[in-house]
Amino acid sequence: MVGLRAKIDTGASTSALHATEISEFKRNGERWVRFTAHLGTLVQRRHRCEAPLVARKIIKSSNGQAQTRYVVRTLLALGDHLWPVEFTLTCRKTMRYRLLLGSKALMDGKWLVDPARTYVQEKPQTLTSPGAP
């Protein structure tokens, strides 16, 4: 697991993850996407990923430009809470935060946002998968 600072954006419906080298492919007749996720805050870590393609979605940015993005689903850990979140894949290299959490992810996770506070959540404990050492 990699710690990653996220921008909470209740004005954005969809969550976004900084990704590059994005390509679609087929696996067993299903559509998948392969991409490099850029994780870490102070030290950048690149992680090559593959995930089933959930959808393609047209996203309008805050400056009004529309962009078609791939959508994947993965588990997100915030504190001791873990839930599935859909992320669009996009280049966020010019953004301060590599991960944006939109309102749908916050509602699905049953989170309440206090805009007057920052960094109120403890760092997550290391999670292990079943069968992992």
TrEMBL record:
Keyword Secreted applies = no
Which GO BP terms sit in this record? proteolysis
Q: Does the keyword Lipid biosynthesis apply?
A: no
Q: Could you list this entry's UniProt keywords, alphabetically sorted.
A: Hydrolase, Protease
Q: Which GO terms describe its molecular function?
A: peptidase activity
The identity of this protein, by name, is ATP-dependent zinc protease
Membrane-spanning segments: none
Print the organism lineage: Bacteria, Pseudomonadati, Pseudomonadota, Gammaproteobacteria, Pseudomonadales
Organism, per UniProt?
Stutzerimonas marianensis
Q: Which residues form the Retropepsin-like aspartic endopeptidase domain?
A: 4-124
